[in-house]
Design brief:
By secondary structure, this protein is mainly alpha-helical. The protein has two domains: about 5-75, Orthogonal Bundle (Arc Repressor Mutant, subunit A), CATH 1.10.10; about 80-205, no CATH class. Helices cover about 75% and strands about 5% of the residues. The protein contains nine helices and three strands. It has helices spanning about 5-15, 25-30, 40-50, 65-75, 80-135, 135-160, 165-185, 190-200, 200-205; strands spanning about 20, 55, 60. The protein has a three-stranded antiparallel sheet with strand order 1-3-2. β2 (about 55) and β3 (about 60) form a beta hairpin. α2 (about 25-30) crosses α3, α5 packs antiparallel against α6 and α5 (about 80-135) crosses α7 (about 165-185).
Amino acid sequence: MRAAEMEMVKSRLRDIGKNWVPYSEFVRVCGENNSDPEHGNRVANMLDKAGNVIVLGNFVCLKPEELTRAVAGLIPTNEPTRNAATRQEFEQLEIIKSDIDKKADDLVRRELQAGLGLVIAQTIGFFRLTFWELSWDVMEPICFFATSTYFMAGYAFFLRTAKEPSFEGFYKSRFETKQKRLIKMLDFDIDRFNKLQKIHRPDLTNSAGRC
C-alpha cells in the first residue's frame, strides 16, 4: 500500500475527532474509497501493527499517545524512594540539630546561673557595706551608679541585638550565639537541614527561625 494512501486514511481518522471508536467504524473508515471489501481490514491491521492505533477488543484508540501518557501516570516512579531517602537524611540531621540545641541551652543556662550568683554576691556585699562597714550616705551614690551601669548595659544590648533587654531577650541572644558557634564547630549543614525541614516538617518551618 502506498504511503500516500496510508496518510489519507490517517487524516480521515483524525477528522473523526474522537479518541475511541468501534472497531467496525474503524474498518469502514479504513476501507473508504476502495471497492475491495477486504481492503479496510488490511489497512486496519497495518495501522495496528505500526502502532498508529491501539485495538482493544471491539474498540480502537485513535490517539495511542494519550493512552500511553495515561498509563504512564499510573505507574509508580522512584519518587517515594527518593522521599524515603531524604526523610532518613532529615531524621539524622534532626538528631544532630537537637543535640546542638541542647548543648547551647546548657551553656546559656550556666551563664545565667553565673549571672545570678554575681547579682546575689553583689547584693550581699552592698548590704554588708551599707549596714556594717560604711553607711547609706556613702553607699547611696554607689548603688545609683551600679544601677546606671546595668541600665547602660541593657541599652547597649538593645543597640547590638535589636532585642528587648530582658531575661528572655538575653537568653535568646546568647542561645543563638552558642548555637551558631556549635554549628560551625561541628560543621553541621544547616542549609541542608532547613531545606529538608521545609519538605518533611513544613509545620515547623514558620515557627522555627533560621540560623
